[in-house]
Specification:
Layout lengths: L1 H24 L5 H14 L4 E6 L2 E3 L2 E3 L4 E6 L3 E6 L6 H14 L3 E6 L9 E5 L1
Helix pairs in contact: 1-2
Length: 127
């Protein structure tokens, strides 16, 4: 239970950073712009992160780089998959779920910045 509380506190801190970025920039920009600005906001909030972290696939005992990249991995616990699309689709959620399974991370946030209110563009997944 204690671990889940920490994950939700981390999630709230990340969402707070995303809200700040969205309030400052609004919708309609490129995903890479939001990623860069969110990374800056995370650092201002003393959250450790890695950008574009390689996510290899383990296949029959061999580690294979298939080109998967995590947009942001925060505190080695939360995967952030960022989008700037008209609407989130089931394939976006499936992508995040796959990243969670491949990485062993327990929590992921799918964030679509291309919305009027960011709360309508956030999906949280916890394994």
């Amino acid at each position: 239970m204690h671990g889940e509380k920490i994950l939700f506190e981390l999630s709230d801190a990340i969402i707070g950073c995303a809200l700040t970025v969205h309030k400052e920039l609004g919708p309609g920009l490129l995903e890479t712009t939001y990623e860069t600005c969110l990374a800056h906001e995370l650092s201002l909030n003393n959250l450790k992160f890695e950008r574009q972290k390689s996510l290899p696939v383990k296949y029959r005992g061999t580690v294979i780089d298939c080109g998967y990249r995590i947009d942001l991995l925060v505190e080695n616990q939360a995967i952030l998959e960022l989008k700037s699309v008209e609407k989130l689709l089931p394939i976006h959620e499936a992508q995040l779920l796959t990243y969670l399974k491949l990485s062993g991370a327990r929590m992921g946030l799918l964030i679509n910045f291309n919305v009027k209110l960011l709360k309508h563009g956030i999906r949280r997944m916890v394994l």
